[in-house]
Each structure stands twice: as structure tokens, then as C-alpha cells.
Specification:
Protein name: DUF115 domain-containing protein
Strand order of the largest sheet: 8-13-12-11-10-9-14-17
InterPro entries: MptE-like (IPR002826)
Number of strands: 17
Strand content: 5-15%
Radius of gyration: 28 Å
Helix content: 40-55%
Number of helices: 19
């Protein structure tokens, strides 16, 4: 029996017939193939110049020419082909700079989309299943959409978080700079507890039962490296279980309130740039710095290690245990679900949790294979843990155990905590985290450079606003293509573009964090809305470009003045 056969449709287009499990399918309409092509083109209506197009299935490739006529050079087209024979027949032919053909493979697609979809472009995606592909390759298409939805959610959530916390992120970052010299870098503890079992204590509803088991086997606990988040530190200490490390990454004041009773604790405390500034400043125990930003902006810190981030402190706790060499890594209170119809453990519930509001519920499988309610955000955290485990287990022999009673976490099989504690062979002792204050930076100089950068580009914004207005009122030629190299108007236009590049690609601009993220997103939404069809005409239109850049610099100045106001306020309180 054949696997693949090429045919001609009645309207004279080539298409494939495939045999899958002794069932024969045509990948396009054998009567009216032109309609398949037209459906694709119709779906691209309103395509913007920087939209990303995903097409599931290439079939005979008959639509490529028509597709090229409806996109511009700045568009990216990703064609996912689930049939290996068809992929092989096209992979050498499809070699356009902005059209990429990928053989369907979950892992390849996942990794590819990770690098492609971000906060700038997540809302500029076009998706089309060509011809009959969606019906012929149902499972593959369903999984592709699931992966795409996940990346969309990650990008959208990142932007939403940035918008909500941009002021507090910036305040915390400026303040926490001054705490680095009094901290030890996470690098100092890489593989310090090789093959020591770790318990990651999260605040899910299962924690109450998990705590009872830990108390029952309290004499065993000194053989485990125990990591708590700020929400669970108090629960452990009140039960006379002392963690080896507490990690706090959330920026808001509520995280300070959760830990204010324990500020004099001698448990090592790990933080990153955006952790709550008051908590970082007032915590009396030894501090450990986890780098996410400063290793990209401060030359002396460029070799510092960061951790995996997945939206929750639990992800950072898990990766910190892995970096320290811990194995196995045991998850307690990591429900990722509304176990017992609760959001958090009774012992880790605070006033802020009393009125969570109505949350959209979905059903997932629990650790016993039954259905359990969860929320979209909790399920997202679960997916990020699963993604992390998958990545790590491809490279390292690290075991993950889920001792919670909530959602099933792929890659972390469920075991009763009692069984885990009593079955582990304890051949090594836990090593304490000895301080290594090897960071030495001049935080006041860095703070000064940030202010200078803000002031510089407020000035440059004014300069470019004036230039744009001047150029708009000039008698310059309509097309950039018609201008001579020594044309003063062209020279001034190129200078404006240089300023944009200088600002956006400066490492000091990274300090602006979520302000920069929001600015770039908003600018794109408001002023860079060219359709693909108009791209060539408008990018060469001198007055159109000047008008766009005028708006760019007006918005930039407004943003920088807002940041400066926040900066001056917080820098007065930095030691």
C-alpha cells in the first residue's frame, strides 16, 4: 500500500493523497483546490507588516507564490508540516529568508516558538490550517495549537505583570542595588549539596498534611535541604521546622508583611533585583543574590548565575535546589490545583487570600488520575514546572517527586511523603550555606549612570521632536529612495534613527525594565500599524516616517519623565 501519492485537482492544481492506518485522505480539495488557496489568502486579511503567520501543512506547495504576493519582507511565515515525506520533498525548495518550513516535532516546535514569540509580537499572530490538514492530522494540529496557546499566554502574562508592577519593579531594583555588596552570589553554592535530597515547600492545600508527616519524621529532616518561599517560611518556623533557605522574589508589600515576624531569623535569604526592597533591606540573616538583570548590565557581575523563572517562587526554589546539586527534589504543598476546594494551605493563608474573587475553573487530572479543579494561573504554573522538568531531565539525572495531593505533574511522579522520607538512603550530610561576600560594585555610580541616561534621552527626545517637526515642514522629497546621500534632510532623518537605536540597544536602558517593555509595546500598537501591503510604500515615505518618529519621541519623553520622578523619589531613601 502506498503512503503518498500526487494527484491533480479538477482545477489543475497538484495535491497529495496520503495513506494513514489504511485510510486514504486528500490533503486538499480535489474538486476545487483554488478555494483552499483562497481561504488561506482570505485569512491573511489585515496582515500587518510585522505579523507572524503560522500555516499548518504545505501539501504540494501550490500556495507559495500566492502567499508571497500577500506578505512583505518583514513578515515571518512558519509552515509546520506533519508528513516527513512531504517535508523532505520541499525542504530544499522552501529557502526564503522569511518563509521557514519545519517538520512537526513537539520539542522542536516548542523550542522554536520560545525564541520567536514574545511580548512585542504575541498579538500579531495569524494561524491557518491548510486544506484538510486539520482533519487528517487532528492530534498533531491540536498539540501545535496547545503549544502556541501556551507561548501566547506566557507572553501576554509577562506583559500584564510588567504593566501592573512596573513602578514597584523599578523602585525595588534601584534600592536592591545597594544590598549586593552585603550578599553572597548564588554561584558560590553551585553543587554545594550534591545528591542531598531537597524538599521544596509551597503553600498549596496539601501542605497541612505534608507538615504533619514532616513533624512525624522530624528527626529525619536534618538530612534534607529544605527551601521555603516567603509564604511558607512562617508555617515551618511555627512548627519548629527550620528551613535551610528562604527565597522571596515577589515585589509587593504583602511579601514583607508575610515575613516581618521573621526578619531577625538566621535562615539564609535569597532575593533578586525585583524582590520587595523593604524585605531585602531589613532582613537580618545572610543574603544570597540571584541574578536576572544585573549580570546583563554590570560588567563585574556578567558571570553570575540566574535561575529558571516560571511565574512563581516555586520555580525558582526548584531550580535553586537543582543548581546546588540536590537530588531528588521533593515537592510538598505544590498542588497547582484547588485541592479540597482551597487555594492555599490553612497554615499559609493570609488576609489577602480571604476574598480571591471569582476565578475561572478548569478540570485537570490529579495525582490519582481523577479530575480536580484548578485555575488558569495555577495550571499555567504546573505547565511551567513540567516544561522545566523536561528540560532538566534531558541533561541531568535529577529525580523529581511530587508528595502533594493536587494536580498530576508530568515528570514528577506522586509518592507519599512518608514513603519518600523513610526510603531515602542518607549517606551525606547537608552543608550549610557559608557566606561568600565576593560582590564588590559601586552602586552609587550605577545609580548615577541610570539618572544620566534618563536625562540624556529626555534631552535627545526634545532634540528629535524638534527635528521631526522641522522635517515635516520642509520641502523634502516624498520618497527616501529619491534622496541623495548628502541631502541634509536625509542626514537629519538618519540621525533620528541613530538615536532610536542608541536608546533601545543600550544596556543601561535595560534598567528601565517594565517601563521599557510597556513603551515598546504601546508604540508598536499605536504607531506601527502598517499593513503588509502598504509596507514598501510607507517605509520609503519620508513624511510618514517623520510623523511616526515624532510620536515615538513624544511617548519616549513622557515615559522617561515618569521614570525620573519615580527614580528621584526612591533614590532619596537608598543608603
Amino acid at each position: 500500500m502506498f503512503n503518498l501519492k500526487k494527484h491533480k485537482s479538477k482545477d489543475n492544481y497538484e495535491l497529495y493523497e496520503v495513506d494513514i492506518d489504511n485510510k486514504v485522505y486528500f490533503l486538499g480539495d480535489k474538486e476545487n483546490y483554488k478555494k483552499n488557496i483562497q481561504d488561506l489568502i482570505d485569512n491573511l486579511e489585515g496582515l500587518l507588516f510585522d505579523s507572524i503567520v503560522f500555516i499548518f501543512g504545505i501539501d504540494s506547495g501550490e500556495y507559495i507564490n500566492e502567499l508571497e504576493n500577500n506578505i512583505c519582507s518583514y513578515n515571518k511565515v512558519i509552515i509546520i508540516e506533519p508528513n516527513k515525506e512531504i517535508y523532505e520533498s520541499h525542504k530544499e525548495i522552501i529557502s526564503k529568508d522569511n518563509i521557514k518550513l519545519i517538520l512537526y516535532d513537539e520539542e522542536v516546535i516548542e523550542n522554536f516558538l520560545k525564541g520567536l514569540i514574545n511580548y512585542k509580537n504575541f498579538n500579531r499572530l495569524f494561524v491557518h490550517s491548510f486544506g484538510n490538514y486539520e482533519n487528517v492530522y487532528k492530534e498533531e494540529y491540536k498539540k501545535f495549537i496547545e503549544i502556541l496557546d501556551n507561548r501566547y499566554l506566557v507572553a501576554m502574562s509577562t506583559l500584564g505583570l510588567d504593566n501592573m508592577f512596573r513602578k514597584i519593579f523599578f523602585e525595588n531594583m534601584i534600592s536592591n542595588l545597594s544590598q549586593l555588596n552585603n550578599s553572597s552570589p548564588l554561584n558560590s553554592y553551585i553543587e554545594c549539596n550534591n545528591n542531598i535530597p531537597a524538599i521544596i515547600v509551597s503553600a498549596g492545600p496539601s501542605l497541612d498534611e505534608n507538615i504533619q508527616t514532616m513533624l512525624k519524621y522530624k528527626d529525619y529532616l536534618d538530612k534534607f535541604f529544605i527551601i521555603a518561599g516567603n509564604r511558607t517560611m512562617g508555617t515551618l518556623i511555627e512548627n519548629e521546622i527550620i528551613p535551610n533557605l528562604v527565597i522571596s522574589v515577589d515585589p509587593a508589600q504583602i511579601n514583607y508583611d508575610m515575613m516581618k515576624k521573621y526578619l531577625n531569623s538566621d535562615v539564609p535569604f535569597a532575593f533578586y533585583e525585583y524582590s520587595n526592597k523593604d524585605l531585602v533591606k531589613e532582613y537580618k540573616g545572610e543574603k544570597i543574590y540571584i541574578s536576572q538583570l544585573f549580570s546583563r548590565t554590570i560588567e563585574d557581575l556578567k558571570n553570575l548565575t540566574g535561575t529558571y523563572t516560571g511565574g512563581s517562587v516555586a520555580h525558582i526554589c526548584i531550580d535553586t535546589a537543582r543548581l546546588m546539586g540536590c537530588n531528588p527534589i521533593i515537592l510538598v504543598g505544590q498542588d497547582c490545583a484547588l485541592t479540597y476546594d482551597k487555594h492555599h494551605s490553612d497554615n499559609a493563608t493570609f488576609d489577602i487570600d480571604k476574598n480571591p474573587g471569582e476565578l475561572e475553573k478548569i478540570l485537570v487530572k490529579d495525582v490519582y488520575g481523577n479530575e480536580i479543579k484548578t485555575t488558569l494561573s495555577l495550571n499555567f504554573f504546573k505547565m511551567k514546572i513540567e516544561e522545566y522538568i523536561k528540560i532538566i531531565q534531558q541533561q541531568n539525572d535529577v529525580k523529581f517527586i511530587n508528595a502533594s495531593y493536587g494536580a498530576d505533574i508530568i515528570g514528577a511522579p506522586h509518592k507519599e511523603l512518608e514513603e519518600v522520607i523513610t526510603s531515602i538512603n542518607f549517606s551525606k550530610c547537608v552543608k550549610k550555606l557559608v557566606p561568600d561576600k565576593s560582590i564588590s560594585i559601586d552602586s552609587s555610580e550605577i545609580v548615577k549612570s541610570i539618572l544620566q541616561h534618563i536625562n540624556k534621552f529626555i534631552y535627545k527626545s526634545d532634540e528629535c521632536i524638534n527635528l521631526c517637526n522641522k522635517l515635516l515642514n520642509s520641502k523634502a522629497k516624498e520618497s527616501l529612495m529619491d534622496m541623495k546621500e548628502d541631502d541634509i534632510n536625509l542626514q537629519q532623518f538618519l540621525y533620528i534613527m541613530e538615536i532610536i537605536d542608541e536608546f533601545e540597544y543600550s544596556t543601561i536602558s535595560y534598567y528601565l525594565g517594565s517601563y521599557l517593555t510597556k513603551f515598546l509595546f504601546d508604540i508598536r500598537q499605536k504607531y506601527f500599524e502598517m499593513t503588509a501591503k502598504d509596507y514598501d510604500q510607507l517605509t520609503s515615505n519620508f513624511k510618514y516616517q517623520c510623523s511616526t518618529f515624532l510620536n515615538y519621541f513624544k511617548e519616549l519623553k513622557t515615559m522617561l519623565e515618569e521614570v525620573k520622578e519615580v527614580f528621584l523619589k526612591v533614590s532619596q531613601n537608598v543608603n
